[in-house]
Structure prediction request, 106 residues.
Amino acid sequence: MGYLMLSGAILAEVLATTAMKYSDGFTRLWPTVVTVTGYLIAFALLAQTLKTVSVGTAYAIWAGAGTAVIAVIGMVFLGEAATAAKIVGVLLVIAGVVVLNLGGAH
Prediction:
């Protein structure tokens, strides 16, 4: 159940961050509402996750997955350059999360 809540936290954070891009510096109402709501949901679900998943593991997965997904969204949907450095960076973030889950974070 903890990992299911963690997945929801990641999804909410990704939606909130994507909406923030469209909020135009919090000057557009609905993207701003989605941003704030998404982050509230993300943190609430992350807090519930920490009841059953260690903080190191949960935070590594939450931050790493969110970072990687947002970077990919930026490159695929928002017109950001898909440079070799960005792609390697995303792969390194994913590798770091995998390493932590294999034994670095208990």
Observations:
- The helical segments are 2-22, 29-49, 55-77, 84-104.
